[in-house]
Amino acid sequence: MRSDSRAAAASHPSEGNDWKKASSAPSVAGRVSSSSQGKRAAASGLKRSASTLAGRVYVEAVLNRYLWLPGTPTRTSRHDRRLARTLYEGGVPLAVVQGALLLGASRRTFRAESAPPLPPIRTLHFFLPLVDELREQPLGADYLEYLEQKLLPWADGKAERVAAAMG
Question: Which of 24, 64, 128, 141 is the most exposed place for a label (fewest CB within 10 A)?
């Protein structure tokens, strides 16, 4: 990962976004399950294109936040990139996706120490139920900023381990 990607991943995602905006659209997981439906809708021009500058910025913001989180991989897969594009094309607000990422990572990171360890998160798809949860019941911006600050030491530790492994 390039250093500018790491800087972008560590930057605060809420600038210009309203954490409280959430759509009442149907479940994201239900829409993602059938790629042929997405292709038909894209062909008919009903969805936004992820090939636009806004689409690329959205996809990169989602993937950078995902990589920044503790307990996630150090690089994305093509499936992660495809899901980020699907979320953009489906009109899921970036603030909702980033909030779901923060909430999911926080729930895993700050669980009881006596609980058995969980396996690492291997895919962005892990967060889809949380995207749906936040679309139904959004969290406040202050709470999401609090979660981000709580995760910062773990994310910094991950970045240091990645940097040490690279060089």
Answer: 24
pTM of the model: 0.72
**Terminal C-alpha separation, the chain:** 12
Residue range 128-142: mean pLDDT, rounded: 96
24: in domain = no
Three-state DSSP state, 69: coil
Locate 37 and state its tokens.
């439906």
In a domain, 20, yes or no: no
Q: Kindly state the tokens that stand for 19.
A: 């954490």
Give the chain's domain count: 1
Task: Say how far apart CA 87 and CA 92 lie, in whole Å.
Answer: 5
Q: What is the extent of the structural domain holding 150?
A: 3-11+29-109+119-166
In a domain, 35, yes or no: yes
